[in-house]
Amino acid sequence: MRNSTVFDCTLIEMDKHHSDDKGNITVVENSKTIPFQVKRTYYLYDVPGGGSRGSHAHKELQQLIVAASGCFDVTLDDGNVKRTFTLNRPYQGLLIVPGIWRDLNNFSSGSVCLVLASERYDEADYIRDYDEYMIYKENE
Ligand code: TYD
Question: Whose alpha carbon is nearest atom 12 of ligand 1?
C-alpha cells in the first residue's frame, strides 16, 4: 500500500484475562482482535541488549508486533512522518499496515518480539533499501 501512513497503524490493547492465582492469558483472534487472518507466526529472541532489527518495509504484509517479554522500541516511518512506540506489555500489540518502514531498536536483553503476520514469508514483499522505499511511496 503506497499511500498508507503511520496514522493507519495502531496500538491494540488486548484483554489480560487476569487471575490472581493463575496469572494472565492474552488471546489474539483472526478478524476479531486483528483485521487479518494469521498465516505465519515468528519470534525474535536472543537479540543482544540494545540491539536493532527490522529496517525494511513490506508491500502487502500486515503484522501485529507484541513484546511477549521485555521491551523494545518500534519506529514507524511512512516517508513523511515518524512515530515511535515503546512496546513493553504482553497485552499490547502494534498493528502495522502495509507500506510502512519500521525500525526495531533498544531491545532489552532477554526480550521476545512476537510477530503475527498476514502472509507466508516472501522476500519479494520486502523493500530493504530506504531510497527504494521513498521512490515506492512517491510513486503513488
Ligand atoms: P528479517 O525479516 O530481515 O528479520 P528482521 O527484520 O527481524 O531483522 O529476516 C531475517 C532472516 O530470516 C532473513 O534471512 C529471512 C529469514 N526469514 C525467514 O526465512 N522466514 C521468515 O518468516 C522471516 C520473518 C525471516
Answer: 121
